[in-house]
Amino acid sequence: MRGAALRRTLPSTRDLSCFEAVVRNGSVTLAASELNMTQSAVSRRLAYLEDLLGQRLFLRERQRIMPTPAARTYAESLRGLLDEIEVATARMLAEGRQGGVLTLGCVPTFGSRWLVPRLSRFLAANPAIDINLVSKIRRFDFASENIQAAIYFGPAAWPNCIMHFLMGESVVPVAAPARLTGSPLPDLLREGLLIQHTTRPFLWREWLGHAGIDHADGEAGPKFEFYSLVIEAAAAGMGFALLPEFLVRRELDAGILVKISDIAMPCSDGYYYVYPDRYRESHNVQLFGNWLFDEIKAGAREAHPGDPA
């Protein structure tokens, strides 16, 4: 009898999911969109939960809905529990069958230039898995975004996550062929524009120091947020760009861009495969990670056939 009484006071996971989503988004409309429900359905769930708990969870002020302090604390406590329920359910569904959707975050240019051209091989080998690829240059928030794993470029530090090193990165200076005037390299760089990457504002200054070239201002020049835009600007003849050679291999092979120096500067950051600890045992997350490592090893063998992978 005690167990039955306890179950009667246990809210449904649907009510709790609606409540947590409204608190996190600060909006019934946004929560409804996230949960693929109507606004009225979400509002009914909130009303059911308030009736069950015997207290108001939200203060409604004109067009805004504000959680009470107690409701905010309740939502924070529920968030981890709902994540655990989701992971446990996904694990149970995976028993006896593998597949479903793997939502993967990826830095944009690496995704378009390196990952997507290879992705058909993963999908062909794993037809039961659908990849949902989300691109963003900033870090993903695994707590609030529906992302199971990410390919990230940066330092080897991400709290509460498991990180696997994929590859390092070295940058070389490139330009459109028309930019080559026959002047010595230092003069060439002083006379032209240095195309900057906004998330790595000191990259040119660091490379110039690495190459031993004096330059009045290695931080001046047009700035772009994405590597893809830096590549397009360089190919259009705007100026000189520092880029990872593997991301512009297509332009180099086609003669659209040329290396103006063979001096490559290794970057302190690297590419990592990252996922929250709660996905440690996810079949899809681990399967995709293993495929990534195999692809990188295969690429290393092609680039350096005499070296062990």
Question: Would you kindly provide a written description of the structure presented here, covering whatever features stand out?
Answer:
The protein is an alpha/beta fold and 309 residues long. The protein has three domains: 93 residues, Arc Repressor Mutant, subunit A (Orthogonal Bundle), CATH 1.10.10.10; 104 residues, D-Maltodextrin-Binding Protein, domain 2, CATH 3.40.190.10; 97 residues, Periplasmic binding protein-like II (D-Maltodextrin-Binding Protein, domain 2, 3-Layer(aba) Sandwich). 45% of the residues lie in helices and 20% in strands. The protein is built from eleven helices and 13 strands. The strands form three sheets. Strands 7, 8, 9, 10, 11 and 12 form a six-stranded mixed beta sheet that branches. The chain has a five-stranded mixed beta sheet with strand order 4-3-5-13-6. Strands 1-2 form a two-stranded antiparallel sheet. α2 crosses α3, α2 crosses α4 and α2 crosses α5. It is elongated, with a radius of gyration of 25 Å. The chain starts with a helix and ends in a 6-residue tail after the last helix.
Write the layout of secondary structure elements.
Elements: H1 2-8, H2 13-25, H3 28-35, H4 39-53, E1 58-61, E2 64-67, H5 69-94, E3 100-106, H6 108-125, E4 129-135, E5 149-154, E6 161-167, E7 170-175, H7 185-191, E8 194-197, H8 203-211, E9 223-224, H9 227-235, E10 240-244, H10 249-254, E11 258-259, E12 265-266, E13 270-276, H11 283-303
Parallel strand pairs: 3-4, 3-5, 8-9, 8-10
Antiparallel strand pairs: 1-2, 5-13, 6-13, 7-10, 7-11, 7-12
